[in-house]
Every structure is written in structure tokens, then in C-alpha cells.
Amino acid sequence: MRHTIGFYGAGNMAQVMIAGLLNSGFYQKEEIYVYNYRYEPTLKKVKEAYGVKVVSEEETLFEQTDWIILAVKPAVLLQVLPRVKKYLTEEHVLVSVAAGVSTHQIAALTGPHKIIRAMPNTPATIQQAMSSISPNELVSSEQTQFVTEIFNSFGKAKVVSEENIDAVVGVSGSAPAYVYLFIEALADGAVAEGLPREDAYEFASQAVLGAAEMVEKTGKHPGELKDMVTSPKGTTVAAVQSLEESNFRASIMRAVKAAAKRNHEMSEET
Hints:
Layout: E1 5-8, H1 12-24, E2 32-35, H2 40-50, E3 53-54, H3 58-64, E4 67-70, H4 74-84, E5 93-96, H5 103-110, E6 114-119, E7 129-135, H6 141-152, E8 155-159, H7 165-173, H8 175-192, H9 197-218, H10 222-228, H11 235-245, H12 248-269
Parallel strand pairs: 1-2, 1-4, 2-3, 4-5, 5-6, 7-8
Antiparallel strand pairs: 6-7
Helix pairs in contact: 7-12, 8-9
């Protein structure tokens, strides 16, 4: 039986997911329903842009779909869950993309249901997300695989234990910001050496993109790839030495741990 999908929320993340599902051919527009909490003009925009089915009542969304993507902010999610609890059946699978809200917290507000926590990152906007998928104990392996395929439609997705969500946030969720800082710093260094800024950003961003592709496509350890370009007495080994002297590696590790720590704190605050 083909599952219908309902989006509770029609903001940026919901639209990214809808676009991914449609562009990949994984879903057709008539199989997707969308309800937007409070703001009606956004719902109209989604209807015009994607041709999906939109509904104006919460109850209708739950009646028409068996998979519900909870695409609202954490504070909103905690407000609406007790209200929509009455619409839930044993057939529903809830997929939350709200940061800092655990499957246990969702279950406490809805009762025992199949709940999956997903954590995509911002490159989802260009169909290049890295998402974690964390199901609770009521979700079957087939259902887990299905939602993984949903998130694969706009990037890559991997099943991880929910206890590792903090680490995922540090290494993936917040990581685009570290990379942007790195690209900016690379470009600044090139500008200091005389390269025009527009060219500097192009060289820096392409270098980062290419290096990431090398790690993914060759399957080689990053250290091995680094060694391949560090010739004796060459420019690269001089640069690597400078980075090591500046505690570059330790700084990145501290950043990942800081993001993970803050995510854990946010979970305790909700």
C-alpha cells in the first residue's frame, strides 16, 4: 500500500523536502498534503509552487495521511502535539525535524506512537543535506528504511541512535557554519596575497567542494589524501605545519563538542 505524506508546517524545511520528493520522482504531488499552522499565505504559496494538496484543517491532514512530517519549530511543536493527539491512530508515523525535541518528549505529549526524529542540515536547500534518522522502539525496520529514502531524496541520510544526536549536530547540523568560516578565511588569505576577492571565493569554495568529493568518492582516509598532496619541503606541508602550530585540529574538535553540548542543553530546556 502506498503511503500518503502530510506536512504539518509549510516553512522552508517543509518546502525543501517537498521539492526533493517531487524532483526525485519518489512522490507525486497528489500524494502530498500540507497544512500550515496559522499563516495561510504560506499555504497558498506552496500550492502554487508545487501543486500539492493543501488543507485548512488539522483534522483533515491526519485523516488523509498516514505519515506526518512535523516541520515546525520546537516551541510550536510542543504546543500543538497535545491538541492533535486526538487525531492520531495506530497507523500514523510521526517524523519530527524539530531540533532539541526527543522522541520521548513527543511520546509524552501524544502517547505511544511510531516516532522518528530526523535532523537535516541547511544544505538541504540545494538538495545536498546530510540527515540523521532516529526511530523509537515502535518503528519497524521497513518504516525506518522508508523515511530514510524520503530524506535521501534531497541529500543523504543515515540511521543513528538518538543518543548520538548531539554528536550529529556538532559534526553535521552546525558544521556548514564552520565550513563557511573556513572558506572566508581561505579567501581572505588569498586577497592578502593579491588575488581579487571574487576570484578568491571561487577558488576557495571549489577547493573545499573538490576535497569533500575526494573523501566521499575515493573512500580513502582523509589523512591519506592529505599525505598525497604534502610533498617534501613543499607548499602544502608548510601550510599544514602552520595549521598544526595554530591548534587548527583541536579548535575544530572543540567547536564540534561545543555545538553538541549546546544541543544537549537545548533538549533539557524544552
